[in-house]
Design brief:
The protein is built from 7 helices and no strands. The chain is mainly α.
Length: about 160
């Protein structure tokens, strides 16, 4: 019998002995979810939620914040009309992708958009919208960079 199966059996026995322990219940769900025929997005949600619950301080944590993180309710953010802060998205993506590139990992904008939704939007965003917002922010940065280069060239010509 493999070690993972023994661990899952032990977790199930522990959960039976201590009913009402949310953290153990979420760990058990996360351990078993891959074996179900549920859609991938449901499996991903259960795994991410289990991770959040595992790190949650049951004694002193803010239950409303936990419910918010798990996606049980969503507050309106005071963001620009587009819904996203382009400067923040651009800086976050660049930092994340730079770290990946330094490790020799392959860059993937869609994967990074999913991570942004998970980590920054507390799983309450749309990865496709985030990806599009990043692309708009990158295009805006490219325009600003070109304008800066042109300005530097003009200033250099004036000094001559």
């Amino acid at each position: 019998m493999d070690e993972n199966s023994n661990l899952q059996d032990q977790m199930a026995r522990d959960a039976e002995r201590e009913p009402g322990n949310a953290q153990k219940a979420w760990r058990l769900l996360a351990a078993q979810i891959d074996e179900t025929s549920l859609p991938v997005w449901v499996k991903d949600y259960v795994k991410r939620s289990a991770s959040v619950v595992a790190e949650y301080d049951m004694a002193a944590g803010d239950q409303a914040q936990l419910a918010h993180i798990l996606g049980f309710y969503k507050e309106k953010d005071s963001l620009p009309p587009s819904g996203y802060d382009y400067d923040h998205i651009f800086e976050w993506f660049i930092e994340r992708m730079t770290k990946r590139a330094e490790k020799g990992e392959r860059l993937n904008i869609s994967r990074t958009a999913n991570e942004y939704v998970d980590e920054v939007c507390n799983m309450n965003g749309n990865p496709d919208s985030v990806r599009k917002a990043y692309e708009k922010a990158r295009a805006r940065f490219d325009v600003q960079l070109k304008q800066d280069i042109e300005l530097q060239q003009l200033l250099a010509k004036r000094k001559k």
